[in-house]
Automatic annotation (TrEMBL):
Keywords: Methyltransferase, Transferase. One of its GO terms (biological process) is methylation. It comes from Natrinema salifodinae. GO terms for molecular function: methyltransferase activity. This is Methyltransferase domain-containing protein. Residues 1-23, 83-122 are annotated as: Disordered.
Amino acid sequence: MKKSIEEHAARFDEKATEYDESKSDEYHACANLVVERAAPAADDVVLDLATGTGAIALAIAPDADRVVGRDISEGMLEEAERKAADKGIENVEFDHGTFREPEYDGPADTESSETPRAPTRSARVDIVTSNFAMHHLSDPEKREAIDVIADLEPRKFVLGDVMFFGEPDPDEPFYSPEVDDPATVGALADAFTDAGFSLTAVERVHDQVGVLVAERCPTAADVDEAPAEE
Ligand SMILES: C[S@@+](CC[C@H](N)C(=O)[O-])C[C@H]1O[C@@H](n2cnc3c(N)ncnc32)[C@H](O)[C@@H]1O
C-alpha cells in the first residue's frame, strides 16, 4: 500500500462531498458492469467492500434482500447514508471496515428484511462486490483480502478495478503510481484461483480498467448441506 489506511481515509474524507461529480465514462461502465454481473437474487445478502458513497450498494439494493457496505472513510460513508435516505432505500447499511478486516458478522435483521434468517446463517454473504478500490492495496495485501473474502464463502465475488491488461502506463488514465498499486489481470486471476474461486468472466473496460467475476468452487461441505433430491 503506497499510503496508509489513515492517509487513504483522509484523502477520501476530503473529497467525499464532490466524489460523485465528474466520474469518467470508464468508471460508469465499470460500475454498471459490476452491478450487472452481481445480479443478486431477491433473497441474497451482498457485501460491498470499499463502498465509498454507495454507488454499487445503492444500485444493487432494489434487487437484493440486504446490502452491507464497508469503507474506511467516514466522509464517504456519510454520503452513502445520506443518499440511501434521500432515495428511501432501507435494506442497506454502511459502516467501517477494511478489505482485510471487513468487520462483517452479517446484516442487521430489520423488519424490511423479507427473508428471516436462521441464527446459524446470520453471517452469511452470498455475493461480494467491490469497485475502483482494491488497487490501493499492494499485491500481497490484495491476496490477503481475497483470502478473507473467500473465507466468508460467497458464491460470487465481482471485482471492478484499475488493473493492467497490458504494460502499466502512468501516462494513460486511471493509474497514479504515487497513490495506486494496481495488479495485472494475471496476478488477480492467480490470487482468485489460489483462494478457491474459478474466474468465470474477464471484462476489459480500458487497458487499465476491468471487471473480473470469480465464483466459488463448491466444497464437500456445500454438497453435504445441499437438500437431498426426492
Ligand atoms: C475510488 S473510491 C470507490 C468507491 C466506490 N466503490 C465506487 O465505486 O464509487 C475508493 C474507496 O475505497 C476506500 N478504501 C481505500 N482503501 C480501503 C481499504 N483498505 N479498505 C476499505 N476501503 C478502502 C476509500 O475510502 C474510498 O471510499
